[in-house]
Amino acid sequence: MSVTFTEDNKPHVAETAYVPAYRRKPVRKGKVRSWMILAPIGGAVLLAAGATLLFNPAEPPAQPLNEPAETVALTPAPVPVVPLEAAPPAEVVAPAPVARSAPSAPAPVRSAPARRAAAPAVTPEPVEPVGPRPYEASPATRALNSAPTVTPSTTPVTPPAARVPTIPTRPLDAPVPTPPVG
Question: For the whole prediction, is pTM greater than 0.90?
Answer without folding.
Answer: no
